[in-house]
Amino acid sequence: MFDRLEIKVLPPGSRFAAQVRFRVNSEDIVEGAIGEGGRGTYAADLLPAGRPSPLRAADEARRLELGEPECTGGCCGFLSMAVQRFGGIVTWSDWVVPRAAHTGDHSPPPEFHFDACHYDAEVARAESARWEQVHP
Fold this sequence. Notes:
Elements: E1 5-10, E2 19-24, E3 27-28, H1 29-34, E4 39-40, H2 43-46, E5 62-68, H3 73-76, E6 79-86, E7 89-96, E8 112-115, H4 116-134
Antiparallel strand pairs: 1-2, 2-3, 4-5, 5-6, 6-7, 7-8
């Protein structure tokens, strides 16, 4: 059985630009790995206007940052993973969790396996809907 990905863009707030949040199997990945104060990666970085998202999976693995603790990634590191396509499967694996997350009851997410067609459709949906989500 494949995991299910949902990508959501949170509108900009008073302190931060619009950020991307990921739910896999209905669970927030950033909150689960970092804690309640964790932030997602900026939407401009993961869903850039005018070019494909780095979330698009390729045959060669690519490391992506998905979030950071409240103290910032420059302080304690970023939540990151490797995304890679294997034929009809996209995997998220090789997780790195910020040092700040080690002080709580948080552990790295498991390896996720997505149906490549559904994964591609969700990334394309997020790319096309980015501006509507950021500017409701």
